[in-house]
Amino acid sequence: MTKLHVSMLALALGGALSCAAPIASHAADQPVAKPSGAMSKAADKTVEATKPGPSPAPAKTATVAAKVSPETVDGYIKATFGKAPEDWQQRIVPDETMQACNKYRNDVPHEVGDAIMKREITKVVYPADGKFLGNWKEGAKIANNGQGGQFSDKPETVHGGNCYACHQMAKSEVSFGTLGPSLTHYGKDRNYTEAEIKQAYTKIYNSQAVVPCSNMPRFGTNGFLTEQQIKDVMAFLFDPESPVNKE
Question: Which of 177, 206, 186 is nearest to 139 (CA)?
Fold first, then answer.
């Protein structure tokens, strides 16, 4: 575009703007008067021609429920572990219990649920010394530790329980998840009975042994937490001096 064309365009725009300015100023104060005569009739026809017609009826679309096969899901998950070492690859292979939970989308029939609990309870190893409670202060650290089990972790990384990701525990903790129930006053509300303590240990060690298709990890059975770590978390839940029960 030449300088001459630019100048002419600028003049044209300038003229249009200078003409429009008084109209805009006028419109701000009162409605613009409707033009009369032939120009008015022509304008009316233009307006009529540009009026939107009746909206067309919406096209009927069939609702098709999207179905994804288990094979597709398994293939996708495996692809995300494509470059992982072989021992990591084995971690995503569902065992018999996970296969049943996947099949029924965690809503297993009673007989399947009973079979899961019967199978999983055999995988629970109770402390040889008969003691279920460790140090609640160490348990508080484990409950707040979300490290471990990630590609980026160093081999020496100590695994944590990451309990606060799903549960409220000590009331003084301001950050916690709500996927699981609140565990405040857990031991106190259960009167610190031996039966409740053993049940809680079983749940932490292998949640599937207590609740079929539970969302909770199988910390002990899968070797994610050591026996001592589970004992410490148990103390955090059941020791009367723990903030879980004191606050």
Answer: 186
**DSSP E strands, the chain:** none
| Residue among 228, 227, 232 at smallest CA distance from 135 | 232
The pLDDT assigned to 184 comes to 97
Our CA dihedral for 69, 71, 72, 76, rounded to 10 degrees, sits at 150
Task: Choose among 178, 173, 179: nearest CA to 236.
Answer: 173
CA 237 to CA 169: how far, in whole Å?
8
Q: Which residue matches tokens 């723990």?
A: 242
From the CA atom positions of the chain, what is the Rg in Å? Answer: 35
Can you give the pLDDT at residue 70?
Answer: 78
Name the stretches of the chain with pLDDT < 50: 1-51
As a whole number of angstroms, the distance between CA 179 and CA 164 comes to: 10
Distance CA 200, CA 167 (A): 14
Residue 206: predicted pLDDT: 98
How much is the pTM? Answer: 0.71
- Predicted confidence at residue 84, as pLDDT, reads 83
Start-to-end CA distance of the chain, whole Å, equals 78
Query: Tokens 């903030």 appear where?
Result: 243
pLDDT value, residue 138: 98
Helix (H) or strand (E) run with residue 200 in it: helix 194-205
Q: What is the pLDDT of residue 150?
A: 84
Nearest to 232 by CA among 144, 155, 101, 136: 136
